[in-house]
Amino acid sequence: MPNYPAVPAVQSIVDEAKKEADVLGAVKVGEITADLNRARQSDGSTENRGGESTIGNFVADVQQWSTGAQIALMNPGGIRANLTYASTGDSDPDGNVTYREAATVQPFANTLVTLQLTGAQLKSVLEEQWQPDGASRPFLKLGVSKGLTYTYDPTAAKGSHITSITLNGTAIDPAASYLVAANSFLAAGGDNFFTLADGADKKDTGKVDLQSMVDWFTENKTASPDLAQRAVGVAVTPAGAAPGDQVTVDLSSLAFSAGETAPTSASVSLDGVELATAAIDPTVVDATDEVGRASLTFTVPADAHGAQTLTVATDATGTTVEVPVTFATTAAGGTIALDKAKVAAGGSVTVTGEGFAAGEKLTIELRSTPVTLGTVTAAADGTFSTSVVIPKSTAAGAHTIAVIQSDGAEATAALTVTEAAGAGDDLAITGADSMPYLLLAALLLATGLGLVVLRRRRAARH
Question: For the Gram-positive cocci surface proteins LPxTG domain, which residue ranges apply (predicted)?
Fold first, then answer.
C-alpha cells in the first residue's frame, strides 16, 4: 500500500513518461554472441564482486575505447546486471541488446575520467583490491581493459600480492606514467581505491558511461565475451630453486564462475619447452577470484640460471601470462679478476680468468640490467684474458661483471662504474692527464707578461 493516494494529474505524467521510456528502452543498440556475466558465488546465482567477470572486463574495454586511455579500470559495484544472450520475448531476439538492457548494466550515469598513474601507483591500485580490515567485502575485483594482464600471489602478505604487470606484452615500468580511465566514482577513490584519487592531470571527459557503451555498439556492432583471464594467481615454491630441484607452481583464477566455457588443463613452459601440465579444478571459491585452480610440479632444467620467465597457459580459453622467476645460479668451475675496480662509462676493463675448461666459449655480461659485452674462448690451460668496453650509457653505480659458461654456471666480480668522461667531475674520477692544462696556464702567463713589458716601453717613449 502506498503511503499517499496517487494524484491523478501527476500519475498521468508518470504513465506517459513510462510509455515513452518503454519505446526508447526497446531500441536496439547492438548484439552479443553470448552472455556477458557478473561473477557468481558457489550457489550459482548470488553475485560475487570478488571474481573476475566477462562483463567487468568488457565495460573496461568500452571505457578504454571511449577515452583513448592506455588502461581502463571498472569497479564491480558499478555493474548492476548481466547482458543476457537469450531472448526475453518476440520483440527481443537472441543476442539482441536494447537501450534498456545497457542502461540496467550501468544505471548511475557516471562520467568517465582520465588520469595519469605511474607504474608504481598502478600496482598500488591493484593491491587495493584486497580491501581494508572492516570493509564490507574482503576483496573487490576490478575489471581491466584488454592488453593489461597481471599475476598475483594469493598467499602473500597485504601490500605484496601483485607479482607482475604487463601492458600489451611489455612489463610495466614503475617510474613511467600511464593514462588510465575510470568512472568518476572510482577515479575519486571510491570503494577504497584510494590511490586513484592521487592520480595526476585528472580530466573529466564529460562522456557518460552508458552513452559510451551505446556508442561502442554503434561503432562495433557486436560484442563477444573474452574468456581469457586478465589476472592469474601464481605461487612458486620454493623460491630460489637451483637446476635439478623440484618446483611447484600453484595456479588460480583460471576460469570464470558464471557458467562460461572453462579450461580443463594448464601448462607451464620455459623458452617454449613445456615443463608440466595439470588438470584444472573448476570449483568456485566464494568472495574471491580463485575459481579455476591447478598445481604443476617440474624439475628446473639444467641450463636455467638466474632471472627467467615462465609461461602459464590454458587450453580452450586462451589464458596466457608471463611469470618472472629467479633460479639459483651454479658457481662456475673457474674464477675471474678485473684489472680495475672502478671505470668510467665508455671505458674498458680487462677481464682475466683461470680454471675453465680448455676451449670453452664464455660469455661476458654486465649487470644490473644484463648487457652482453662479448665472448672469449678459454685457452688450453683454462685461462683467458680479454678487454671489454663498458657501454657509455651505463648508469653510474655498483655493477657486476659475469663470465658465463655454456651450462649457465658463472663467475662474477664487482665493478663500480662512474659517469662517462666529459660529465661533471670526470677529471677527478678518471685521473685525466693534467699536463695540457698546465701548459695552457703557462702560455697565458707568458702572454700576460709580454703585454706588461709592451705597455712599459710605450710609456717610456712618452
Answer: 427-462
Spatial CA neighbour of 379 closest among 334, 337, 412: 334
**Helix (H) or strand (E) run with residue 372 in it:** strand 371-377
Continuous segment of H or E residues that includes residue 219: helix 209-220
Residue with cell 655498483: 398
Q: Which domains does the chain have, with CATH numbers?
A: 8-223 (3.90.780.10), 231-327 (2.60.40.150), 335-430 (2.60.40.1930)
Alpha-carbon separation of residue 53 from 89, 231, 261, 314, 410 (angstroms) = 26, 11, 13, 17, 46
Tell me the C-alpha distance between 236 and 245, whole Å.
Answer: 13
CA of residue 51 relative to chain centroid, distance = 20
Q: How far is CA 170 from the centre of its chain?
A: 7
Are 315 and 278 in contact by the 8 Å Cβ rule? The answer is: no
Burial of 74 (0-12, 13-18, 19+ CB in 10 A): buried
CA gap 361, 358 in Å, rounded: 9
C-alpha cell at 59: 565495460
First to last CA, the chain: 124
* Alpha carbon distances (Å) from 298 to 273, 295, 311: 12, 10, 13
Q: Are 329 and 305 in contact (CB under 8 A)?
A: yes
CA max distance for the chain: 125
For residue 312, how far is the Cα from the chain centroid? Answer: 16
The answer to whether 325 and 295 have CB atoms below 8 angstroms apart is no
pLDDT in tens, the chain (462 residues): 678 888 888 888 887 888 877 778 899 999 999 999 999 999 999 999 999 999 999 999 999 999 999 999 999 999 999 999 999 888 899 999 999 999 999 999 999 999 999 999 999 999 999 999 999 999 999 999 999 999 999 999 999 999 999 999 999 999 999 999 999 999 999 999 999 999 999 999 999 999 999 999 999 999 999 999 999 999 999 999 988 999 999 999 999 999 999 999 999 999 999 999 999 999 999 999 999 999 999 999 988 888 899 999 999 999 999 999 999 877 778 999 999 999 999 999 999 999 999 999 999 999 977 899 999 999 999 999 999 999 999 999 999 999 998 877 889 999 999 998 775 443 333 333 444 444 444 444 444 444 433 344 444 444
Q: Look at phi and psi of residue 382 and say left if phi exceeds 0, alpha if psi is from -120 to 50, else beta.
A: left
